Each structure stands twice: as structure tokens, then as C-alpha cells.
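To the team - adenosine-5'-triphosphate complex, inputs and output below.
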Amino acid sequence: MSATTVSDTRSDAPAKAVLEINGVSRWFGNVVAVNDISMSIGTGVTGLLGPNGAGKTTLLHLMAGLLQPSRGSITLADAPVWRNPAIYASLGLVVDREDTYGFLSARELVEATAKLHKLPQPRAATDRAIAMVGLGSAADRRIATYSKGMRQRARVAAALVHDPAVLLLDEPFNGMDPRQRLELMELLQRMGESGRTVLFSSHILEEVEQVSQSIQVMVAGRLAASGDHRAIRRLMTQRPHEFRLASSDDRALGVALLGLECVSGIELEPPGLLVRARDYGAFTLALPPTARAAGVRLYQVLPADESLESVFSYLIAG
Ligand SMILES: Nc1ncnc2c1ncn2[C@@H]1O[C@H](COP(=O)(O)OP(=O)(O)OP(=O)(O)O)[C@@H](O)[C@H]1O
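Output:
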């Protein structure tokens, strides 16, 4: 199976690739976590989208040189990442773990990291990193007293204290409230715009499309699709789909919907209606005006199978 590569109408020149993943697989015993993946990650923000267990964490750890590929190779600016500690001068990784040293303040954690990197001015670098993530006066409080989002920001500050060219983040928005999420998105965007390579993983399409110029979709260890956010959104919504509807007059609604090009079948299933749509996006746009024109009130519109896995399964089957 080959990944779907999709592009949009934008004519931006492709960004310079800095992370090259060449035919990389990684297995643990019988489990193939990453299966023959090749991709180039250039400057700007890239989202690595996939359901739980897709292999995103494994791929990020391979990119960061923490795991050896079972097959294939990964380079950062033409240098191998495996068994090459020199890459850590230009790479930062934010892992998806809660066990940040709670007994330290964020400032202490970030400064210790700055010293590990042997930065000439660890204190100034710490101040800069703390300011970038907007921890403000909380930076001097113990991390144990932080909210989940603040702990995440402390980890991000530690990962970028040495001003790395490449920042990798594993599910960075997990557990953040909407304001914290927006702030981190703005930070990642600023870093991407300043010429850094930022790659973050997520299982939420909305999250990824808000902040990424480019999206790589992983399913069951494989690269299923890559492209910009509009193209990936189209790929995920222009697909057959079933909906369960409830309305003031299911029979009249069914008749009206059958006239739509994007509807391929209707079943009256009291107490509702099962609609088979050829195209998810087109149907959700056409439904409200069609119901209104038929004088029917919509009470409920439910996707019949809207698990993220079903969307991804469609992508790899397609
Ligand atoms: N150290 C390990 N030993 C055995 N199996 C592993 C190991 N690490 C990962 N796996 C397996 O590899 C597969 C991919 O896991 P991975 O954590 O990379 O996925 P993910 O996309 O990051 O998912 P999640 O968001 O749930 O962490 C899973 O089946 C997982 O159980």
C-alpha cells in the first residue's frame, strides 16, 4: 500500500527538508510499530496525525535518536540521528509523560537542562525559554503545584532552552484547556515561522489542521496520507458515510434527501432514518437547507460510525 499524497492550490515552494526518514521500520517482538515509513520533514509546523497505537510515539522516538530503527535510516541535516549525541544540540523532544520532576520549579528544571547542554549563559537561556512559553511568575513555584497544561509548558521550555532547529512534541495538547492550547499553538506557529522544524503528534484532526502547514497521517504503523490541512480534511470528509437522523417527519425528510446527489440510500428505521451519504462533507452541508425546504424539523443528526479508527480505516483502504 502506498501513502496518498495530496496537494492543495497553494503554490508555496516546498520547505527545505531537514529530517529525512528513509524506509524506516521498528518492531518490538512480533509487534510492528512502524512499518516502512519514508518522509521528509522540513521547516515549519508538521502534524503527525493518527489514532492511538498508530506508532506515532515510536516514530518520534526514532526521529529523536532514542530508538534504533529495525530497518531503514533517519538523518537530521544529513547526519544520522542514531548513536549521534551531537544531534541533541539541534533537537528538542517533549515526551508524552506526566513524570516531570515535581520537586523542582520550572526555572530549576529549565536551567538544569541548559547546563546539561553546556550553554554558555544558562540563566539567560532559561529566562528566554520561560518567557517563550509564558509561564511568568509561576516559573518559580514547584512543578508539583502546576496544572497539567503548565507542566506541559515547563517541559516545552526545557526542550527549547538550547534554541534547537528541530522541536518534536508527543501529544503536546493532551490535557490542556482551550486557552493553554491556543497559546501553545501560537508558540509552535511562531517557531515554525522563524525557520525551525516543528513536528507534533496528535489524534485530533481539528488540532492538527489549525496549526500545521503539512500533515502526515499514520495508521497501523504505516504512512497513510500526507498533504496540507485542506487536502487532508477533504480526504477525510469526502467519503461515504452513514448518519442516523430523527426529525418531525422522517418520511418526508427521506423523500427530500433522496433527491440529493450526495445521498445513495435511505432506510426508514423507526424511530428514525438511516441515511447513506456518498460524501460526508457535501451531505452535512446539504442537510439543513433540504430539511428546511421540506418543512421538516431536525431533532438529531448522528454519524452512525464516527470513530476516528473508522475514518483512518477508510483512508488506508482507499
Ligand atoms: N517498547 C515497546 N514494546 C512492545 N510494544 C511496543 C513498545 N512501544 C510501542 N509498542 C507497540 O507499538 C505500537 C505503536 O505504539 P505507539 O506508542 O508508538 O503508538 P502511538 O501512535 O503513539 O499511540 P498512543 O497515542 O496510544 O501512544 C502499539 O501496538 C504498542 O503497543
